[in-house]
Structure to design on (225 residues):
């Protein structure tokens, strides 16, 4: 799978993508990350990617043209016909815009995206992006929670990580992402314990030490969050 991230701050991702499971997945060629600097698609000499909002108000708004050109470079938009310039009718790619007013990204969302060949994430910033991007160039506008962050980069990283770990082979053990929290909407995981069996007079539940898999399964189901 390929994950392309359109951002004003590509260096934000360099360290996280070189750690842990995401690094291993790239080394195994299971996943490829493509960091795209939106400024590279600005046409003026100062590489301006934002401007004041029409109608007034505080802050700046990300311009449509650089993002449009970046998506064209990824073959995500129609180049001819009646839909020219709009999101291409292509089921192999999905384009997501991070936005505080978007729909909530969930485990179900991640499960839907993992079947695609390419996930393209646009990182919103400043006071947001020109609304014509949301209206014409994307498939989903999404948030990761009911709060505001300084830019879409942390949200893009969360989305990328949640999707990447669902790709077969990324976690190593095929059972690692089965029965997890949110695997079924609203269902949380069960408590986990490891050695030692007792620490500070805090024991591991006896049922987990007896080797009776039927009782262990029932205990886990009864103790899900």
């Amino acid at each position: 799978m390929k994950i392309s991230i359109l951002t004003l701050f590509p260096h934000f991702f360099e360290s996280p993508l070189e750690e842990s499971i995401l690094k291993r997945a790239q080394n195994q060629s299971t996943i490829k990350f493509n960091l795209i600097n939106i400024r590279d698609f600005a046409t003026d000499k100062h590489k301006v990617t934002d401007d004041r909002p029409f109608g007034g108000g505080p802050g700046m708004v990300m311009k449509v043209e650089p993002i449009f050109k970046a998506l064209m470079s990824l073959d995500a938009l129609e180049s001819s016909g009646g839909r020219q310039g709009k999101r291409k009718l292509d089921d192999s790619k999905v384009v997501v815009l991070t936005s505080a007013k978007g729909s909530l990204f969930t485990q179900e969302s991640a499960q839907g995206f993992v079947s695609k060949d390419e996930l393209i994430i646009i990182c919103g910033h400043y006071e947001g992006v020109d609304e014509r991007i949301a209206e014409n160039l994307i498939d989903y506008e999404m948030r990761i929670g009911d709060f505001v962050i300084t830019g879409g980069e942390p949200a893009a990283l969360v989305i990328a990580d949640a999707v990447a770990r669902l790709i077969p082979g990324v976690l190593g053990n095929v059972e690692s992402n089965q029965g997890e929290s949110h695997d079924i909407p609203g269902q949380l995981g069960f408590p986990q314990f490891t050695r030692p069996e007792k620490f500070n007079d805090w024991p591991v539940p006896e049922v987990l030490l007896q080797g009776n898999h039927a009782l262990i399964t029932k205990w886990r189901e009864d103790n899900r969050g």
